[in-house]
Amino acid sequence: MPRTPDEILRRLLELLLAKDMDAVADLWAQEGTAEFPFAAGAAPRRLAGREAVRGYLAGYPELMDVREIPPVTVHHTKRPDTIVVEFTAHGRTVRTEEPYQLDYITVITARDGLITHYRDYWSPLAAAAAAGELPDLLDSLRPEATQ
Question: What does pTM read for this prediction?
Fold first, then answer.
């Protein structure tokens, strides 16, 4: 079982490539959170608890086929339980078969070998474009759609 934030990150990326979303969710503490500060449209901004993370990840392999994650950059903070990670995911969108590349900056805090807080900064525009859903995202951002 991974113990440090670095080990958890490596395991998370391995499981993502293996498309084992249940095992990815198992890396979260029971009350751990996931936040997506740049989320837009119908995408959640915050998930509370391992089971919420599991539900969020459940259909991911049917949307995005992540095939490669080139070497990541890990920045260690003054807190030994927290790292900041830069990485890129390469793959294809399942629905459109189009290739994509998505960049992420993620802050991971872990305790007792489990993620207690995961903050993921990704571009909702890039994700929607990769999924072939950019028009829907843009429509959801119009003032009349948010009322």
Answer: 0.86
What CATH number should be reported for the domain holding residue 62? Answer: 3.10.450.50
103: closest CA among 77, 120, 122? Answer: 122
CB 104 within 8 A of CB 12: no
- Tell me the pLDDT tens digit for each residue of 30-54: 999 999 998 877 789 999 999 999 9
Chain centroid to CA 128: how far? 14
User: Distance of CA 41 to CAs 66, 139, 146, Å?
Assistant: 22, 9, 9
Which of 1, 4, 30 lies closest to 108 in space, CA to CA?
Answer: 4
Work out how many domains the chain is built from and give that number: 1
pLDDT tens track for 64-91: 899 999 999 999 999 999 999 999 999 9
What is the extent of the structural domain holding 79? 5-145
Four-residue CA torsion sign, 126, 92, 71, 12: positive
Strand partners, 48: 33
- Asked if 90 and 104 touch (Cβ cutoff 8 Å), the reply is no
